[in-house]
Amino acid sequence: MTASGTAGFSTELNGYFEMRRLGAFVTKSLAHFATEGNPSPRAAGAGPAMLNSVGLAGPGIQAWRAEHAPLLARLGIPTFVSIWGRTVADYEKAVGQLSGLGDFAIGIEVNISCPNIEDRGKMFAHSPQVVAEVMDATAGADLPRTVKLSPNTHLILEVADVARAKGAAGAVLVNTAMGLGIDSGLLIPTLGAKGGGVSGPALHPIALRAVYECHAAFPNFPLVGVGGVSTAREAIAMLAAGASAVQVGTASFVEPRAASRILAELPASMERLGFSRVSDLVGLAHRGGIAGTNR
Known about the structure:
Blueprint: E1 25-26, E2 43-45, E3 50-52, H1 61-67, H2 69-75, E4 79-83, H3 88-96, E5 105-111, E6 115-116, E7 122-123, H4 128-137, E8 145-149, H5 156-165, E9 170-173, E10 177-180, E11 195-199, H6 204-217, E12 223-226, H7 232-241, E13 245-247, H8 251-254, H9 258-273
Parallel strand pairs: 1-4, 4-5, 5-8, 8-9, 9-12, 12-13
Antiparallel strand pairs: 2-3, 3-11, 6-7, 10-11
C-alpha cells in the first residue's frame, strides 16, 4: 500500500506504475472542509530522515469526490480514504460525506494522530477516551475503518485496544515521530511551522517496535506497518514484527516507483529466506523467527 500523504489524492503516481496492482492506494488525509496547510518551508532533510509539516492541506471531501474519486473509480484502483478532523464532530461529518463511493473504495483510514482543538491541541491518538469518541462518531461509515496511530505516546497499546474494541478493522502503525530541525547557517528552525514529523529510515525501528508490541498484545488484530520501508527487506521485517500489510511512504518522494518496486522484489526476497506465502511471515518474529519454523 502507499502511505497517506505521500502519494497524492488520486492517480498522481499512475504515470510511474499501474496503481491498481497495489494492495491499496491511501489518499492524503481529507476533512469535510478545505485547508491550506502550514507555512513554508514544509519539508526538510534531517540526516537519515525527512522532516515535514505540511499541515494536512487538502480540498475537502466534496471537492475530492468531484475531481479525484472518478479517476480512481475509472481505473479500478483499490482505495482507502484517509480522513482527519479538528474535533470529534468533524470525523462524523467526514464519514457522512463518504457514503456510496463505489466499489473502488475498500476502506477508510481514520487518521487520529493529528491535533484535537477540543483538548488544547493534544493528539486524538494520545487519549484512549477520545479515541473511543472518534470511533463512536465514525461508526456509521459504510466501509471498514482502520485507525492511524501516533508513536508519540506511551499509551499506544491502550489506544489500539480501544480502537479494536470499538470496531476498528485494524491499526496503521505508525504516523511520524515529533521532531525539529535547526538550519546550520541561519540557526532557526528549518520548517515554517517550527516542529514537524520525522519519517523515512530513522522512523523504521520506532515503527517496528510499535507493530511488534501491538501484535504481541493483540495477535488477532490486523496491523498495517508503515515507517521507513524502502526495500523488500524492510517490508519483510514489518511482516515478521506482526503486520499483515505494509505501507510505503517517504521512499515515494525519492523514488515514485518505490511501492511498485518493493512489491516486485518481495517474492524473490521471500524465496531467499525459504518462504512462498506472505501469511507465513506475519508475526514470525514472535514465533522464534526462521529458527522456529518447521522446514
